[in-house]
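Example record

One chain of 217 residues, shown exactly as stored in the release files.
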Amino acid sequence: MFLVSFFNYDSVYFLINVYLDSSQLALKYLKDTEVNIRNVLIMTGDFNIRDSIWDSHFLYYSFYSDILFEVADSFHLELSRPTEQVHTRYLDNQQDSNSVINLMFLRVKSLKHDNHTIYSDWRLTFDHAPLIINISIFEKHIQTRKLMLVKNSKEEKYFLNELIEAIKEINIENIQSKEVLKLIVQLFAIHIDRIWYKHLKIVNITKHSKEWWNKNY
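Predicted structure tokens for this chain:
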């Protein structure tokens, strides 16, 4: 099975939390199914795969690793290396050895993301050690005002009237080169900006604000 959790910010990022059983059905599903999840930041969990790639005490290779890397690559993720290589699963019996089956994949070229840390002493009575990574969340400026022309207002009417007059006044008789055309367009854009700022209105954004712009306009 696999679970998907969401970080819902202005730029939406996703965390994929994975648990794979011994049959690896979830891994096969992720490989064979086009999962439409963009901006995955982290994929982590119990992958239940032993491989010498991430466990130096294990001498063998698992073909499931190829599938796992293929899935990670489809989300633009790469394997994170722990700050200290220790086991992630601890067994009480002596027949089986401790292992590394909890992994973390991070977004490729993600900025300022340190390698994760395995805290084996935090597991208490559990057989799996937690994997920890710090993800910085930067303060975001929230806009509380906006510049606009209110629909059907007198300001909008004046703006449209002056815009129409400005279009009528464009001289197109002496356009003899691309440079001249470019200059006329630039001057017209400057004129539009002047008209816009002349009639705009500063509106405070509140929880009661409503957008009038929709697919019908």
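Notes: Residues 2-132 form a domain with the Deoxyribonuclease I; Chain A fold (CATH 3.60.10.10).
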